[in-house]
């Protein structure tokens, strides 16, 4: 890993910056960047749990209107855009990538499912608004009543976490499942952090293992912040493998020890990033062997200008990155589940939507 870092450093003079105090906010999204057009798409069409229809018979899209965090005035005061998922969904429907009726609408993850990863004490502690406020790094959340906390914050998190389970089930049937949400990579067994409350990916892995549908699962996490929570949830499990590429000098510090960690200096551009990924992806599959499923955390906070990271990728680079991951899985006929993770530049929603458009279009025969 050090050799990789030296190589990147030498190609990026002065790229290493001082350690950042930034924290990853996995559901929050930059309000200043809320520039997407307001679509007339009726969100009520994706309100109640129901099966959908895979696009081209290969791509299951999972989303629900109620993924959106509704925290009253906290939304307007918080520095992040709570509507990124909705903007991605609307942009894709506007582009006729799929119809609202095609979308698979999930149920909430259950307490029983959460208990396969999280401690009972932690889940019980979430009744306390102070605990949730700390997880969200939003002190105003502490002023919500227990009912408001449940309806406006915890339920949306549970719904989006249920979406990752549903996307995984559908990926096993059709090849690709995309949850327009989820990717809460900092949630640990006994605590939430950095806007992550439930560890949706580990919970989905345990659920599918419990159902006997999978044994071996790989997590590919390309969020700019290391998925320390995911790693801790899956620690010491030989049937899971975590491969992460992340910026080294930002949250979380210290990092957790994943199975394949690639630490990047600030300033890495498309060319360097994609070069490295093209070498690291085959290594992940050769080290772990063929998994029964891949969970991909496709954070877009590696785009240049992101408020919580310092990498220098473009939207085109993100599209190519995601294409490489999806293609690597499909070439080996491994089902793949994509979750959105972070992304806080002004138009992070656009990078996600461009990438998902490419993924869907590439499956057209
Ligand atoms: Zn992040």
Provide an overview of this structure:
The chain is of the alpha/beta class. The chain has a single domain, classed as Histone deacetylase domain (Arginase, Chain A). The chain is built from 12 helices and 7 strands. It has a 7-stranded parallel sheet. Strand 3, helix 9 and strand 4 form a beta-alpha-beta unit. Helix 3 crosses helix 12 and helix 7 packs across helix 8. The longest helix is centred in the middle third of the chain and has 29 residues. The radius of gyration is 19 Å and the shape is globular. It starts with a helix and ends with a helix. The N terminus is likely disordered. Bound molecules: zinc ion.
Give the helices and strands, then pairings:
Blueprint lengths: L1 H10 L47 E4 L10 H5 L6 H11 L16 H4 L5 H6 L3 H8 L9 H29 L1 E4 L20 H11 L6 E5 L6 H6 L6 E8 L12 E5 L5 H19 L4 E5 L17 H17 L4 E4 L8 H15 L3
Parallel strand pairs: 1-2, 2-7, 3-4, 3-6, 4-5, 6-7
Helix pairs in contact: 3-12, 7-8, 10-11, 11-12
The structure holds zinc ion (ZN).
The site of zinc ion has 7 residues, from loops.
Kindly list the characteristics that best describe this protein:
single chain, 365 residues, alpha/beta, Arginase, Chain A, 12 helices, 7 strands, disordered N terminus, binds zinc ion
